Amino acid sequence: MTEQPQPFRDPQLPFAERVEDLLQRLTLDERIAMLHQFAPAVDRLGLGAFRTGQEALHGVAWMGTATVFPQAVGLGATWNDELVRRVGEAVGDEVRAKRAQDDRVGLNVWAPTVNLLRHPLWGRGEEGYSEDAGLTSAIAVAYTRGLRGDHPHYWRTAPVLKHWLAHNNETDRDTSSSSVGPRVLREYDLKAFRDAVRAGAVAGVMPAYNLVNGRPNHVSPLLARHLRTWTDQPLVVCSDAGAPTNLVDSEHYFDTHEEATAASLRAGVDSFTDHGQDSAVMTGRVRGALERGLLDEHDIDTAVRRLLHMRFALGEFDPALDPYADTSAFDTEEHRALALEAAEQAVVLLKNDGLLPLDPAAGKTVAVVGLLADACKLDWYSGTLIHRSTPLDGLRARFGADRVVHAEGADLVRIKCADGWLQVPPARGGQEAARGVEGALDPALLAGRTDLPPLTCGDTPSELALVDWGNGVITLREPDGRYLSVAEDGFVRASADEPGGWVVQETFRWEEVEGHAGGHRLLHIGTGGYVSVAADGVKVAAPGEEVSGGTGTVFETEVTERGEDAVARAAAAADTVIVVAGNDPHINGRETEDRTTLALPAQQERLWRAAHAANPRTVLAVTSPYPYALTDAAAALPALLWTAHGGQAAGTALARVLAGDVSPAGRLPQTWYTSDAELPGLLDYDIIGSRQTYLYYEGAPLYAFGHGLTYGEFTYGDLTAEREGDLLHVSLTVTNTGTVASDEVAQLYVRAVAPSVARPLRQLAGHRRLHLAPGAAERVALTVPVGELGHWDVAHGRWTVEPGAYEIQAGASSADIRLVTVLTVDGDPAGPRPLLVRGLEAADYDEQLATEIVDRAKTDGDAVTAGAEANELLYRRCDFAEGVSGVEVLASGEGAVLITVGGSTVTVPVPATEGPYDYRTFRAGLDASGVGDLRIALRGTVRLARLAFTGSGE
């Protein structure tokens, strides 16, 4: 007789039944253990170990070699959903292929990042797709569908969206709070997550480090109220690394870790990423919370149930049926070609006065100059390159090595110390053993090495290449390409191929020494110590350590060649100059570090100016994940391009675009401003009130959202828009009237003509990237839900589409609208605020000045407090009906609430309550009738939650 399998092993049963069977077989300790990122095996049931979390933002990361695709913001710049889906499929296949060789590789991938690129100085802008929620959603849906696969039951990988919610600053990221009103929350921040989740290819989300409205994201009630209502899929919520501990240690939101752990689990966090692979700390906190009655087994089972469902979907229990189990596609020809295609499509042509494309057959000389001319930069979430292509590599291959001139443009310096010059001794035994694929030095093998000799001070100076990356941050590199780096023993060695690591050990800053003309100390940024010369070599003194009579050695620098001089010589010797500028993704703008300015670093400004002065045929190619304020360059130079760091094929892609093999058609996924003066505060999340992003910005940006040129010419015609039920069917014809085949990105926007509240100047409602031969035309059909015309009505607490006229706009960018048609939508007007019926939630304002939304209680609810003495909350069109005679104010803190209606102000004193969460009701008389605006000012530490009104007849 054949023994029947345990139900959880029976593939004929639905996942839900199998999960329940397995859940009942697990002991309490085994279930608690599954709540940690590194869940141990359960040998008695034949369960293997499981880990949540595998970085796969634009390729498999942190697990050695992989195909490296363009950065996420570069994928956003393609505006090509179909392409991004194919990239997701390739990345998912490589995750599976690497998993077959290395069980450290996880199938629960933490990607993509859908945080909106609201502020261009955000350090992690490289990880997002766009400042627009619609474009972000479309690209995220495409990528997650590729990662997930198309099998109805089994998933290729299980994608987790990052980072829930309203996360757009690295400065104080684990203690700062994003003040997000109901409209911005629903119309902007939630939308980026919602559409991807509803598409059915998302396995979960990761909460962000920050707080929203005074409450940490890891205990957010919005996980239950919104996220888990968008799908029937049992989504898994994985904490960010160390965030559960932050709830107590840095945020001080809870007094004990047991309280914090219980609160996050009950709010919906299922997997704790904390204390690395040591699960004992977090599981101990869970047990402590159980013992204190802060949790019960139901809370634990709810989380484990979701985790087990994900494991079943990944085929763990059905390897013979898993269609992805034998995937071996890794570094295939198709993946290499796709990496090149993605890099080509990510290039954005910002300006072209006819200089581009260049003709490789013309036999002209091209100078390729700049600090990134011979660089193929990676970021924190890149895999290790198998193949690499720099702009210099690409142009030499396309134009001929004998017709390409190169000058990097770094300053060449010698550094003098008291007894001689800094010198780099030869590396003992050479570096060949440390070289990786295709001759590239593997930074993992070089950075931090202690077997290489440290720098010394001697008679023979070493010439070092100095690059100032902006904000005073410099790197120093010796002639064979090794960067000066600091190992754990504190010695300075030439031992790194590139700056990198969680704490970058290759960056320094010169600091002037008072009373010593020309003298500087050299601060090592990674450790905070100063570089000093000692008998046993050059080392970094511990912060505050006295060395050689002071804190660090005083150095003098002798410049042997200015970078701009070398660039000018190369430019003068060429027919055309390509200046490649931009950033290093590990410096001045990355995870943990926001940028401080939109300005291009001064050294790079000097380089393009020197090139242009020597040769007017100068092209500036910016390679970065961020916008820059290139106002002068845009005015002076005949051509500008931008692309994100394009992965392994970046150089080849740029060369093919410059040569005209490919017509550029990337589009900007975020606004490029003219200067820092146009930017809002980094922590100002009220995009409506402070007029942020292309949606509300009323100025003239340098380059608008959606901007991008091609080598072709396109016309738009025959725009039609018809409503059918809850959908708008919009069609237009795009024709290539130029002489070259090219892609074009048709963009559809909507605008409320006469809205009753502040609405976007225009909002992206659809897009389509299409390829057209010369003379060819294509009819583009787009479908828009009527609900996309709407907004969150704070007065009535609902989503509404106001009746009236709406413009349907089609064009090549948000600033290049070619066609407009008007559609009239019927409906019921919203009407005034029904104060006597609904009361007034303080956070439901129409406008605000200098206030901040805070948590009403630690579990749920919002209140408003003053951010400055001069503050105001404005509530428009309040209906006082036949009249009100009094008001009740629910508030905490100490101070007063000033209520102004019709020119009369009533002051409601708020005596001191017992802490910020001790809300009490305070009453005052108020005489008002009819419909009018209501204004509130807050004094002291008052936290205002709600107002209720008493009718005159009551």
Question: How would you characterize this protein structure?
Answer:
This protein is α+β, with helices and mostly antiparallel strands and 954 residues long. It has 5 domains: 24-313, TIM Barrel (Alpha-Beta Barrel), CATH 3.20.20; 342-407 and 564-584 and 602-678, 3-Layer(aba) Sandwich (Rossmann fold); 419-553, Trefoil (Trefoil (Acidic Fibroblast Growth Factor, subunit A)), CATH 2.80.10.50; 712-825, Immunoglobulin-like, CATH 2.60.40; 833-951, Galactose-binding domain-like (Jelly Rolls), CATH 2.60.120. The strands form 11 sheets. Strands 15, 16, 17, 18, 19, 22, 23, 24, 25 and 26 form a 10-stranded antiparallel beta sheet that branches. The chain is 21% helix and 29% strand. It has 20 helices and 50 strands. Mean pLDDT is 95; it is low at 429-446.
